[in-house]
Design goal:
Chain lengths: ~450, ~400
């Protein structure tokens, strides 16, 4: 190729949620914007190999689970027969494919061009695209949204056929008879839940003494109980020794025990920012020892023309944080007074039951020595929860004892991922317990538990 | 004992700079001339070196901040070098954050727009929540008379009024009443250009004298020597000849190589000839300066001009590249047009503008012959010179352009 150099206002590197949200906003603000993506598509890991397919599969798992539980109500289904081919096809075509086509259409409508290839920076003004559509792009501003990659098991080679990373596991290669899940974080729990529902005997190991380390125990407990009854075994405080592939099986040594055979292993031990190999060393962009790019509250790096959003800027690695950062970065590039000053970034674990939280946790407040009042409402008293046959939930508010301001919210129970939205709004907008208690909540819904928790706090003052 | 280091005087017209990067950290032991900070002035990005060796005790600025000349940038701990390896004396920690200020996202956005620090606002809402009214109240305190209605909330952060030039511009109408509008903040360079052009246009009575130079011979000379010059790594351009012709003519017309001191009632003649050249960049107009143009051979001028323009376009020009000019040349020929009246680069006295040279029919010895004519405009300060002075000065430039032998012999 010759020296074809095109000039754009904004070059976005990576087509995931942070990248496409930023690109769309840039285009809306009148900036000529291109997205460089290795797959020449918008959606990123989240849509194609992450959040979206995992939620689709969890929906399938919930159906199986509910059908099994229906016997209690006097409704009996036969044992489920799972066709992996049809399930895969439903996920890839009806769910992922449809959303991907929607994003591509939105890009066309907004005039955002998607270039296929790998982008490598050549200094603070230009990048080179390698691969299918080689070219050079000179930019007024660039936005790095290259995301993250799964960490391999410490001391083991990266994913092989039977040792899968989360992306490989979500492609549903088969229903392994025995699946070992390494890592008790939300990815391991979610994917473990799917495989347990479609018939695998799932063993989960976690190095620390808790599932979902760092999350308040009273929120984790209902999930831990349910996982205990659905999974074949859960080993906490246990390290995994060497994984040896032999005769179509993987032998794993869990803690000090003798090696056990598994048909497949999922390694879900966390993620690392993908900032290597994209030429950042030719710019003033700074990364920390974990590869995360340092940004200010406008998502600007140390190189004044280059911004970064999403997983590549470090924790929390969540698509919705990346999307908000994308909007902020786009507006900052366009000269608007934007800042990523958000107080509450909700986290949701889409297991059964779901766990969701935002803002200040009870544990976190204790560690920081910040005085708080906690108001809890168990769902056993919720009419709506009773009608669903699920009374194992809990709604919790973390409040400022003086002002009654909502500092944090935690919810466990079916639908917690949707319910947390009201809590997030309360924390973000600095609402008080009185605001929540005096707002009419539809009856009977689980959202009433937020109102009731607030009322409980006011009574106890 | 510690020593404060303030933003040094950056030279003519430059009173402030934006911090781009801080290159040292608190506690660092650094030597004299170690780069401390990178700042962007209205025209260049420059590194500010440390004036002394010592330990950085405190950094008072952060990237993005605009600082004025004289504002303290860094404090050095004194005598730190006497005990190398000693632990940094109580590394100053950032003030502990007292958690986020209770305010809704839209209120926080309003605070950013009005330049109000939320931490300094007392919230009057429930539970000490900061309301929009609290922020607006604090905003009015910041700017004693809030100009315009609160609907000015569309104002981008960092936008501030241009420096006044003596005349108060009348209030703008509410354009919103006729349709949607958008407000864009001016870049640092744009506002500098705006302020300096407004100052020059408002202060200096401009007169423009037009002329045309027959550069047929000069053009042939230039073309004949393009390749040999390129062999020496130099691109010969008409601009380098224009610079030379202007510099030689300035020797004979020193009042155009001067600055008026209205306060003293004196004309300051400069016994050096440093010419500014207008360079268009994607950031805006920048005028770097070539030194001693009258004493530099044309080939060398062309080489220096090429290198200078490249530094400017790459944003790598140093402050020295941009100051000290005595007269400016602007060649807009590449962009076409038949002529233009530039604004004088204050506090210089005059500016020479060249448009595109065109072949035109000229009557010579009773015959019509095609000749290459270059339209020129000389714009000057009528306080310093009169029309006749300008015409003579322009004629001496034209003569040299029409007789390249005289130009090259520096006659």
């Amino acid at each position: 190729m010759g020296d074809l150099v095109r000039e754009v206002d904004v070059a976005v590197v990576g087509g995931g949620p942070g990248g496409y949200t930023a690109a769309f906003r840039c285009a809306e603000l009148g900036l000529e914007t291109v997205v460089v993506d290795d797959g020449k598509r918008l959606g990123g890991l989240c849509l194609f190999e992450g959040c979206v397919p995992s939620k689709a599969l969890l929906h399938a798992a919930a159906l199986i689970d509910q059908a099994g539980g229906a016997a209690e109500l006097g409704i009996e289904f036969g044992p489920p027969r799972v066709s992996l081919d049809l399930l895969r096809k439903w996920v890839s075509e009806r769910v992922v494919g449809r959303l991907a086509r929607g994003l591509a259409a939105a890009a066309r409508a907004k005039g955002v061009e998607v270039v296929g290839g790998r982008a490598v920076f050549e200094g603070p003004r230009q990048l080179r695209v390698e691969g299918d559509e080689p070219q050079k792009i000179r930019f007024a501003h660039a936005l790095v949204a290259t995301g993250s990659a799964p960490l391999p098991l410490a001391g083991s080679p990266p994913a092989r056929e039977r040792v899968m990373d989360p992306s490989a596991a979500l492609a549903l290669p088969e229903v392994p008879e025995r699946l070992l899940v390494v890592g008790g974080g939300y990815v391991g729990l979610e994917i473990g839940t799917v495989y347990a529902a479609i018939g695998s005997a799932v063993t989960l190991v976690e190095t620390t003494d808790d599932l979902l380390p760092g999350v308040d125990r009273d929120l984790v407990q209902p999930l831990a109980r349910r996982v205990g009854s659905r999974f074949a075994a859960v080993h906490l405080g246990t390290r995994v020794g060497e994984l040896v592939e032999r005769d179509g099986r993987v032998e794993a040594r869990l803690g000090g025990a003798a090696p056990q055979p598994f048909d497949r292993v999922l390694v879900a031990e966390g993620r690392r920012a993908r900032s290597d190999g994209i030429g950042l060393e030719t710019t003033a962009v700074r990364t920390d020892e974990r590869g995360a790019i340092a940004v200010d509250d406008r998502c600007r790096t140390d190189e004044s023309r280059i911004y970064a959003v999403g997983d590549v800027t470090g924790e929390p690695m969540l698509a919705h944080r990346a999307m908000r950062q994308g909007v902020v970065a786009a507006e900052a590039i366009a000269g608007r007074p934007a800042a990523f000053d958000n107080i509450a970034v909700p986290a949701v674990v889409f297991t059964d039951p779901e766990i969701a939280w935002c803002g200040l946790g009870e544990r976190e407040a204790g560690r920081a020595g910040r005085p708080v009042r906690v108001a809890k409402v168990p769902w056993a008293a919720s009419g709506r929860a009773a009608t669903l046959g699920r009374a194992d939930g809990l709604t919790k508010l973390v409040l400022d004892p003086e002002s009654g301001r909502v500092l944090g919210v935690g919810i466990v129970g079916p639908g917690a991922g949707e319910l947390i939205a009201e809590g997030t709004l309360a924390v973000e907008a600095a609402l008080t317990a009185e605001d929540l208690a005096a707002t009419v909540h539809a009856h009977p819904t689980r959202s009433e538990t937020l109102m009731e928790a607030a009322a409980a706090f006011l009574r106890g003052r | 004992m510690s020593r404060a280091f303030a933003l040094p005087d950056l030279g003519e017209g430059l009173t402030e700079a934006q911090i781009v990067r801080v290159l040292v950290r608190e506690g660092d032991l650094i030597g004299e001339d170690t780069p401390l900070l990178e700042v962007e002035t209205d025209k260049a990005q420059v590194e500010i070196p440390s004036p002394l060796a010592g330990r950085v005790e405190k950094i008072h600025v952060e990237p993005g901040q605009t600082v004025k000349v004289g504002e303290v940038l860094v404090t050095f701990a004194d005598g730190a070098l006497d005990r190398p390896g000693a632990a940094p004396p109580g590394a100053p920690a950032r003030p502990a954050a007292g958690g986020p200020v209770p305010a809704a996202p839209a209120t926080r956005r309003l605070a950013r727009e009005l330049g109000v620090d939320l931490r300094a606002v007392a919230g009057t809402g429930p539970g000490g929540r900061v309301t929009d009214a609290d922020v607006r109240g604090a905003g009015r305190a910041v700017r004693p008379q809030a100009e315009g209605p609160p609907a000015a909330s569309g104002r981008p952060a960092g936008a501030r009024p241009l420096a006044p030039v003596g005349l108060e511009p009348p209030a703008l109408p509410m354009f919103e009443q006729w349709g949607p509008i958008e407000r864009l903040p001016l870049s640092h360079l744009r506002r500098t250009i705006a302020e300096r052009m407004a100052l020059s246009a408002a202060l200096v009575p401009h007169v423009t004298h037009f002329d045309r130079a027959d550069i047929t011979d000069l053009d042939q000379l230039l073309r004949r020597n393009l390749e040999p010059a390129r062999g020496r790594g130099v691109t010969l351009t008409l601009t380098s000849f224009l610079l030379k012709a202007a510099a030689l003519a300035l020797r004979e017309h020193p009042t155009f190589n001067a600055s008026l001191d209205p306060g003293a009632g004196e004309l300051i003649l400069k016994r050096y000839c440093h010419l500014g050249v207008a360079v268009a960049t994607d950031r805006g107009l920048i005028v770097p300066v070539l030194r001693d143009v009258d004493r530099t051979p044309v080939l060398e001028l062309a080489r220096a001009l090429g290198a200078l323009a490249r530094r400017v376009r790459d944003g790598k020009a140093t402050l020295d590249d941009l100051r000290g000019g005595t007269f400016t040349v602007t060649n807009i020929g590449a962009l076409g047009g038949t002529g233009a009246i530039p604004i004088i680069n204050y506090p210089e006295v005059a500016i020479l503008g060249a448009a595109r040279a065109r072949e035109e029919p000229v009557v010579r010895d009773g015959h019509v012959v095609p000749r290459l004519l270059l339209p020129l405009s000389l714009t000057f300060d009528h306080r310093v010179a009169d029309g006749a002075d300008g015409a003579r000065f322009a004629a001496d430039i034209v003569r040299r352009l029409e007789h390249p032998d005289q130009l090259l012999l520096e006659l």
